[in-house]
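Lab notebook: predicted structure, single chain.

Context: the supervisor wants predicted structures on file for every construct in the current expression panel, including those that have not yet been purified. This is the next one on the list. No modifications to the sequence; it matches the entry in the shared construct table.
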Amino acid sequence: MTDDQRQLKEQIEQTREQLGQTVQALAAKADVADVKAQVQAKTAELAARVKDAAGQASQQAAAAATEAQARLADTAGQARQKAASVAGPAADQARQQAAAAAAGIAKATPEPARQAAANTASAVRARWVPLAGAAVAAVLAWVTVARRRRR
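Prediction complete. Output recorded below exactly as produced.
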């Protein structure tokens, strides 16, 4: 074999090695691309499952909330009915007792005192706005004095 033939054989060997390395690199890249595609597909599938589960959970929560609200409204209505049935007789009894106490007080109060109370009540009814203003002013003055004393 001549030197030219040897050089040519060496070049062919080098080219084969380079070609083999290139093929391996391309195969590795193809595998990475395939794996990447598989990962993306799995990710999309899992995302769809999560969205479906979240939608179902949201619907179930809304249904449970609606049911609880209906139960609460029903219970509140029943409580109102019970309170009305209990409060009616109790309120009537309290009114009767208050009327009896007022009648007893009216009998025990002398006529001049009753007349003075009636005059005061009619004066208050006629001038309730200025009297309410005076009461508010008195309360504010008392609060101011009390705060100053604390200091």
